[in-house]
Amino acid sequence: MIKLDYDKKIESSSNFQLSTAKPFVIMVAIVLVVIFALIGVSSSYFTVEPEEKAVVLRLGKVSSVESSGLHFKFPFGIDKIIKVKTGRVFKEEFGFKTLSSRGNRTTYDNKDRREESLILTGDLSVCEIEWTVQYKVVDPIKFLFKIKDPVATIRDLSESITRKIIGNENYSEVLISKRNYLQELIKKELQNSINNYDIGVEISDYLFQNVRPPNEVQQAYDEVNKAKQEKKTMIELAEQDYNNKVPLERGKAASLIISAEGEANKRVKEAQGEANRFLALLDEYKKYPELTRTRLYLETMEKIYPRMKDIIIVDSESSKNGITPLLPLQNFEGGK
Fold first, then answer.
1. Cβ–Cβ under 8 Å, residues 59 and 32
2. What percent of the chain has pLDDT over 70?
3. Residue 20 has pLDDT above 90, yes or no
4. Contact 230/143 with Cβ under 8 angstroms?
5. CA-based torsion, 195, 197, 200, 202: positive or negative
6. Distance between CA 131 and CA 277 in Å, rounded?
7. What separation, in Å, do the N-terminal and C-terminal C-alpha atoms of the chain show?
8. Has residue 104 got a pLDDT over 90?
9. CA-closest candidate to residue 211, choices 274, 139, 278, 118
10. How far is the C-alpha of 182 from the C-alpha of 169, rounded, in Å?
11. E strand spans, 138-214
12. Are the beta carbons of 53 and 46 closer than 8 angstroms?
């Protein structure tokens, strides 16, 4: 009797446990289903920003590339989404690093980056160049999967091409005269190399941020530049003085030449006039020699007598009669 009662008690207690356990299991199952459903719903869609493109990987293989907007995908990790900012311009800095930018002031740091900026030029001089490369991702699939680290590749190519091209130029040309030309040349060469790697990147810009001599020779370089500037200033002053004086002297020379030509023409005309007058007199002389001779004598006397202040005329009869002519020398100019 006691055993039967004990068995009944055990059976009744187990039935009670089963009856109480069923609602708990059902509750847990419902919670798991809800969680599973929520996870499935939340992982079945994704959004892409306007400056992004999303690469959809389905079981590890590229399925599609989606543009901006709301999109659906297979949940539970079947589809994996990798977003690439194709509408943004990225920038890589060489020889320096931008620390912060507040308003119009930007803070830079070139500590521990000097080896990156020191470049040997073609004339075996060393210059310090800090530059930036700006690029955009035009093909997100190639950018993600063509090579392992595309950013590191861009940096290595930029540094290699910059050193190669700067190494073929003279120091002064790099610092002063050919900066814009070299920037365009390096940009073109860099884009060609990136195209050969086919990583889906387009170079937007290549800029020399700062080009200067190393700190060790900065003072000597400044002195050379100062001497060149002084030389340039002296040349400009000399050219200014030249431009002020030479045209004036050329004007004077041209005036003298014109005056001399006028005088020459005048003299030639006068000589021609005298020659014509002489020929005319010669013709008259041939026709009337005595009359012409007398007229020339009288005309000559008319020119001579007005120039004389005191005139003394002694005729031949007075000399024959023994009269001594008296010449009043004190009346002449210069007489005593």
1. no
2. 78
3. no
4. no
5. negative
6. 91
7. 201
8. no
9. 118
10. 9
11. 201-212
12. no
Owner of token pair 């912060």: 100
Q: Residue 205 forms beta bridges with which residues?
A: 134
Q: What is the pLDDT of residue 3?
A: 47
Q: How many Cα atoms sit within 13 Å of 57 on the Cβ side? A: 12
Percent of the chain with pLDDT over 90: 23
Cβ atoms of 127 and 211 closer than 8 Å: yes
pLDDT score at 190: 95
pTM for this entry: 0.58
Distance CA 223, CA 28 (A): 85
Cβ pair 133, 202 in contact under 8 A = no
Which DSSP category does 217 fall into?
G
Residues in the chain: 336
Which amino acid is residue 131, in one-letter code?
W
Return the closest-CA partner of residue 60 out of 44, 73, 86, 79: 79
- In the block, residue with structure tokens 């005139």: 311
Contact 135, 203 (CB under 8 A): yes
Query: How many Å apart are CA 270 and CA 117, to the nearest integer?
Result: 84
- DSSP bridge pairs for 44: none
How far is residue 192's CA from residue 187's CA, in Å, rounded to a whole number? 9
Helix (H) or strand (E) holding 84: strand 79-84
